[in-house]
Design brief:
Elements (H helix, E strand, L loop, with lengths): L12 H14 L3 H4 L10 H19 L14 H16 L4 H20 L22 H23 L7 H12 L2 H4 L10 E7 L4 E8 L2 E5 L7 E6 H8 L5 H6 L2 E4 L1 H7 L8
Parallel strand pairs: 1-4
Antiparallel strand pairs: 1-2, 2-3, 4-5
Helix pairs in contact: 1-5, 1-6, 3-4, 3-5, 3-6, 6-7
Keywords: Isomerase
Protein name: Maleylpyruvate isomerase family mycothiol-dependent enzyme
Pfam family, one: MDMPI_N
Length: about 280
């Protein structure tokens, strides 16, 4: 087992998540497509255009070996992503909602085939920086990260148009599990004695318990133990929104219970599972 914990295979869930998204999008009115989302400056149409960008980018890079847009001189990864995502979204404003739906449906099967071609324990096509910046990611974590992104963007659309859904445990539990893999990175700035354990409990039908332990000079995902030195408990809705900054750290802390080492609980309640 690596610092990232036990592998998880979410590949069978991509078609299920996509069917839920497409059913939602086909039921939207023209007014719905123009409603603002939690993503600053983006309406529903923009978020869907961004999902299309993700499909195209992963197929182009992973299947065809296309390098994509280049970094500008001195550009950071967050800056690069903000720029290229914004450029693509602006371009997709020329595309009708009907055609966006058709393109997602058409390309989804090709994306599924790309994931199916990957060995889960092989090196990732793209490292997951929010899980570790100094250790190469396995493919299962990279693929899982993409699943979480698609699921979260669907929820952003659902929130904007007041259409709850796609939160059944089969779809949501893997999102929470994958976001919990950010625990070691969240705790990285806190040196503690060997064997120190910090535990996160997420309440709800899709929730669970995850721990990070101090081992060999760094934090690793570990099996939950009986007496963690720090413990944070929050509900499942709070956790995924915290991890994607759909709510602020302060809001998440107001909705959480903590005990033990206050520096560790503060780090855990600042967990981030997106590039920002």
């Amino acid at each position: 087992m690596t610092i990232f914990g036990t592998p998880i295979d979410v590949r069978p869930l991509f078609p299920v998540e996509r069917r839920a998204l497409l059913a939602l999008l086909r039921d939207l009115s023209p007014q719905d497509w123009a409603k603002p989302t939690v993503c600053p400056g983006w309406d529903v149409h923009d978020v869907v255009g961004h999902v299309l960008n993700d499909y195209l980018r992963r197929i182009s890079g992973g299947r065809d070996g296309h390098a994509g847009a280049r970094f500008a001189e001195g550009e950071t990864l967050p800056g690069y992503l903000t720029r290229v995502n914004g450029e693509f979204v602006q371009a997709t404003r020329q595309i009708s909602p009907e055609l966006l739906i058709e393109l997602l449906e058409h390309l989804g099967h090709r994306l599924d085939a790309l994931w199916a071609s990957r060995e889960l324990e092989a090196p990732a096509d793209l490292n997951v920086s929010w899980a570790a910046t100094d250790v190469a990611s396995p493919a299962w974590l990279d693929i899982g990260r993409e699943y979480t992104e698609f699921w979260v963007h669907q929820q952003q659309v659902r929130d904007a148009v007041a259409r709850p859904g796609a939160t059944e445990p089969a779809l949501l539990a893997p999102v929470l599990d994958l976001f919990a893999r950010a625990l070691p990175q969240s705790l990285r700035g806190h040196d503690r004695p060997e064997g120190t354990v910090a535990e996160l409990e997420v309440l709800g039908a899709a929730g669970g318990r995850w721990s990070a332990a101090r081992q060999e000079g760094r934090w690793h995902m570990a099996a939950p133990g009986p007496e963690p030195e720090a413990r944070v408990t929050m509900d499942q809705d709070t956790f995924w929104r915290l991890a994607t900054r759909g709510i602020t750290v302060e809001q998440a802390r107001d909705r959480s219970r903590t005990s033990g080492d206050p520096e560790l609980t503060a780090a855990m309640t600042a967990l981030l599972a997106v590039v920002a």
